[in-house]
């Protein structure tokens, strides 16, 4: 294992990045090491970069450890360049960051000045000329070769003709030199969060009819659809707000299972939502503003809506049907079953809202091939208590009473023993009540051919003196 | 006079076209049982029609099982929708994915709608039947269900015919009332062909054809569902048993058949 980076104290005692951990420990036995988390670092840097939006709209990431702010025209708001830099550094230091900053005329110069300390010089150009050749960000061998040739600083290099430099070190060396000297220009790629789509419509006269408002809303949905198409996205959630002239606002939210940007289908969902409201939208003295926002959007490829003279599609897709029913009946009412990795029967599946489930799930088989189904098609949760007559307390059931009807067990298979999740018990010790008891499951068939799934709750003698019986499911 | 005969003939021709339009058009059919049963029904049950399945409350598991099987057969590979109401969960339990997968119905294909009441359920059913991308629809209505009158049933039938989506109307604890359904069945559980050691075997059902729009009714069959092969088998079919034994050597010993064969049930 090697050190990925070292803090200032570490550097002071001679530790360096890329040193092996064993060597570092040999130098400093009390060394505190943490796993490197490049992804978390990157996320954190991106958050800091977004936070720098307070200084300039053009803030960009600069390598794995830097931020580049284009403060042209922004500094006067903070009372000058230095004041702005001081404020940014203070703010970051408050998060426990160690900050080095530099202000220069080009991004490359600022990058180099922040990383290579140079003795002060009368002006910016002179400071840059005093930078070491490593500031060019060339490969290590090139930097070593330059030093061997006696070229130690940028100033030395700048005094040479560019052609010889290009012949020896390639065109990129010349490009890097020119960028550093402010002769070339490389654009910055600022990070900008795309604002959520929001469309407002204000009306000079309040609208008294909901139907008319919905017509306007359809136009807005079409506009939102165009904006989404430009971004290559489709909306998963749409929110329409009807602002009434007396200050009340009616929000309408619809959600879809697949991204959409088709105005008629958005409006169809909105109408469903309005129909499902317990009290309808009341225009009162009229709506004076409508707002449509798309808080959640996902990538969606461009689609060809209809060929010349052709029909867009034959009918509604199942996804659209699911959206519509989910909006009318409630989000959680249209469900899809998803497997869950648990051997406790009632925990082996989840019924999730169908608008949420996207990836197909894999249902592994229970039992050997050739077996009849070993799990019921209907499961009772909680299991239903039954009265059972069994030959011996830990034997199979002979007869049971469920819902006041008596069933004689003609055929049975079992027990299939399902133990509780003992590894969840505290300190590894089994505490009967906290994690549940062992269940012995039987597949039984009664005299008339009905098939049930019964279980005995608790091991006779070991866990309980009087195990209870439950009916857990129905087989087909 | 000649003129009136002429107009009369035109009128007759017109009436003939009106008559023919919905009825003659043959719809595709799906396998709903062993070969003999499909043959008696003219190739299986019609797709894009409403089929009613009645059962008593005690036959919950068998009725839901058969309805799910027919839905699987009717739906080919398209998504299936099972509309239930809140009472169904309380009385019959929740659909159980691992069990459905073992039964031969892929839970990935299945969408489950838990509706608040019967009115909303029927409305959702009509909407779902208008969506041709759906494979089949199972409408699970319990008890008397007064909202399901002739008008509601005809609405379902029309929607199903237009889109070609098969609708199965599961009426557990309900009594037959006049309806626009293509067929009407009563289903009950039947003793399975036992595995060695008196263990319950593959699911078996007794079905009775109560009513059929075009053709004789009153027949009864016993169905055996082979969940491994995903087809209806026949416990009395020797070849079938041999295959089973070859597949699973452990179950090769003493394979006893139930006393009541399909011929006994067919007498009804």
Q: What does the model show?
A:
The complex is a heterodimer of chains A (476) and B (268). Chain A contains 14 helices and 14 strands. Chain A is α+β, with helices and mostly antiparallel strands and 476 residues long. Chain A has four domains: 8-36, no CATH class; 39-181, no CATH class; 197-302 and 316-326, DNA polymerase, Y-family, little finger domain (Dna Ligase, domain 1, 2-Layer Sandwich); 378-474, no CATH class. A six-stranded antiparallel beta barrel of chain A has the order 9-10-11-12-13-14. A four-stranded antiparallel β-sheet of chain A has the order 3-6-4-5. A two-stranded antiparallel sheet of chain A has the order 1-2. In chain A, helix 5 packs across helix 10 (171-181). The longest helix of chain A has 22 residues, at 210-231. Chain A is flat. Chain B is an alpha/beta fold and 268 residues long. Chain B has one domain (25-266): Rossmann fold (3-Layer(aba) Sandwich). Helix content of chain B is 37%, strand content 24%. Chain B has nine helices and twelve strands. The longest helix of chain B is centred in the N-terminal third of the chain and has 23 residues, at 2-24. Chain B is globular and about 85 Å long. Chain B starts with a helix and ends with a helix. The chains are: A alpha+beta (476), B alpha/beta (268). Chains A and B meet through helix 13, strand 7, strand 9, strand 11 and strand 12 of A and helix 3, strand 5, helix 5, strand 6 and helix 6 of B.
């Amino acid at each position: 294992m090697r050190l990925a980076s070292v803090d200032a104290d570490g550097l002071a005692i001679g530790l360096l990045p890329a040193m092996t951990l064993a060597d570092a420990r040999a130098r400093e036995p009390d060394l505190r090491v943490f796993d490197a988390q490049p992804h978390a670092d990157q996320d954190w840097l991106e958050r800091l970069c977004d936070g720098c939006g307070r200084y300039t709209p053009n803030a960009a990431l600069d390598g794995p450890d830097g931020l580049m702010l284009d403060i042209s025209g922004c500094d006067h708001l903070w009372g000058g360049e230095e004041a702005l830099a001081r404020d940014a550094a203070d703010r970051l230091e408050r998060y426990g960051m160690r900050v080095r900053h530099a202000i220069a005329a080009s991004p490359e110069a600022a990058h180099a000045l922040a990383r290579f300390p140079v003795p002060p010089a009368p002006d910016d150009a002179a400071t840059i000329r005093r930078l070491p050749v490593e500031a060019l960000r060339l490969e290590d061998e090139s930097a070593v070769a330059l030093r061997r040739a006696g070229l130690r600083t940028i100033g030395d290099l700048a005094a040479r003709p560019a052609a010889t430099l290009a012949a020896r070190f390639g065109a990129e060396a010349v490009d890097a030199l020119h960028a550093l000297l402010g002769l070339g220009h490389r654009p910055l790629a600022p990070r900008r969060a795309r604002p959520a789509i929001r469309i407002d419509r204000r009306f000079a006269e309040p609208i008294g009819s909901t139907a008319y408002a919905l017509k306007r809303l359809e136009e807005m949905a079409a506009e939102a659809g165009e904006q989404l198409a430009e971004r290559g996205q489709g909306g998963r959630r749409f929110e329409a707000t009807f602002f009434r002239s007396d200050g009340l606002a009616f929000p309408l939210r619809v959600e879809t299972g697949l991204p959409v940007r088709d105005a008629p289908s958005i409006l169809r969902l909105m109408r469903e939502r309005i129909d499902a409201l317990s009290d309808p939208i009341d225009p009162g003295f009229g709506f004076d503003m409508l707002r449509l926002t798309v808080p959640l959007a996902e990538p969606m490829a461009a689609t060809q809506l209809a060929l010349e003279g052709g029909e867009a599609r034959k009918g509604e897709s199942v996804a659209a049907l699911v959206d519509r029913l989910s909006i009318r009946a409630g989000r959680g009412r249209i469900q899809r079953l998803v497997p869950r990795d648990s051997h406790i029967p009632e925990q082996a599946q989840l019924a999730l809202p169908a608008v949420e489930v996207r990836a197909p799930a894999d249902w592994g088989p229970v039992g050997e091939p050739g077996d009849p189904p070993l799990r019921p098609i209907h499961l009772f949760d909680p299991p239903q208590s039954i009265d059972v007559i069994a030959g011996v307390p830990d034997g199979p059931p002979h007869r049971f009473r469920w819902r006041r009807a008596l069933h004689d067990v003609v055929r049975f298979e079992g027990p299939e023993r399902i133990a509780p999740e003992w590894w969840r018990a505290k300190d590894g010790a089994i505490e009967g009540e906290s994690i549940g008891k062992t269940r012995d499951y039987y597949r039984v068939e009664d005299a008339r051919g009905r098939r049930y799934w019964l279980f005995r709750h608790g091991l006779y003698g070991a866990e309980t003196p009087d195990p209870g019986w439950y009916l857990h499911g129905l087989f087909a | 006079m000649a003129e009136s005969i002429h107009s009369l003939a035109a009128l007759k021709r017109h009436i003939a076209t009106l008559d023919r339009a919905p009825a003659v058009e043959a719809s595709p059919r799906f396998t709903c049982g062993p070969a003999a049963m499909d043959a008696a029904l003219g190739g299986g049950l019609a797709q894009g029609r409403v089929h009613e399945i009645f059962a008593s409350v005690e036959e919950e598991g068998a009725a839901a099982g058969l309805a799910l099987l027919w839905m699987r057969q009717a739906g080919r590979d398209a998504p299936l929708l099972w509309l239930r109401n809140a009472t169904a969960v309380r009385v019959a339990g929740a659909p159980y994915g691992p069990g459905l997968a073992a039964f031969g119905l892929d839970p990935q294909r299945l969408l489950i709608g838990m509706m608040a009441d019967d009115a909303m359920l029927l409305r959702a059913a009509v909407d779902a039947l208008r969506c041709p991308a759906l494979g089949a629809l199972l409408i699970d209505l319990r008890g008397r269900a007064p909202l399901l009158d002739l008008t509601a049933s005809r609405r379902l039938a029309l929607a199903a015919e237009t889109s070609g989506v098969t609708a199965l109307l599961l009426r557990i604890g309900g009594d037959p009332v006049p309806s626009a359904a293509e067929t009407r069945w009563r289903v009950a559980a039947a003793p399975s062909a036992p595995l060695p050691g008196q263990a319950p075997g593959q699911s078996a059902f007794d079905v009775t054809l109560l009513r059929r729009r075009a053709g004789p009714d009153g027949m009864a069959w016993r169905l055996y569902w082979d969940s491994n092969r995903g087809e209806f088998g026949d416990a009395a079919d020797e070849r079938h048993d041999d295959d089973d034994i070859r597949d699973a050597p452990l179950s090769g010993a003493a394979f006893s058949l139930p006393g009541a064969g399909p011929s006994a049930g067919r007498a009804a």
